[in-house]
Design goal:
It is built from 1 helix and 7 strands. The chain starts with a strand and ends with a strand. The protein is mostly beta strands.
């Protein structure tokens, strides 16, 4: 079995906001204790390899990376889980040239193992004149 998590708040603030995951000054995501609680809960049902990614959008930024870091992961396996953040309806403070966004996820079943994998991710954004464009990589 494979699972892809879709949630509002991302797991971690990252770099400049709070690299250690404490959420002392910025509480936009789960803190490191909440991250570990989620990992423990999910591990009760399936191994980390069953969770093929997560999508969130609260921080209004584009981010493609991993859900957990060396400061917040319980194991190396959890550090491998992909995370995708979408700016959603407010655009992104770094680039105010668009007003809305969406990410598309394509999943494919591996013929040899029957396991479902994430095969493609791409973003679209809407410019102020109402035109949807594919987000540059």
């Amino acid at each position: 079995m494979s699972f892809f998590l879709m949630q509002h708040h991302p797991f971690h603030n990252r770099d400049s906001l709070d690299p250690l995951g404490h959420n002392i000054a910025f509480n936009f995501t789960f803190d490191n204790n909440q991250d570990k609680s989620v990992e423990q809960l999910l591990s009760e049902y399936f191994p980390p390899s069953a969770y093929i990614g997560s999508q969130a959008g609260h921080n209004h930024r584009w981010f493609n990376g991993t859900a957990f870091t060396r400061f917040t992961a319980l194991s190396n396996e959890w550090m491998q889980m992909p995370a995708f953040e979408t700016p959603a309806c407010k655009g992104w403070y770094v680039d105010e040239d668009y007003v809305s966004s969406i990410q598309f996820f394509r999943f494919a079943k591996q013929p040899q193992t029957e396991q479902v994998m994430l095969s493609n991710v791409f973003g679209m954004w809407k410019t102020p004149d109402g035109v949807w464009q594919r987000k540059p990589v």
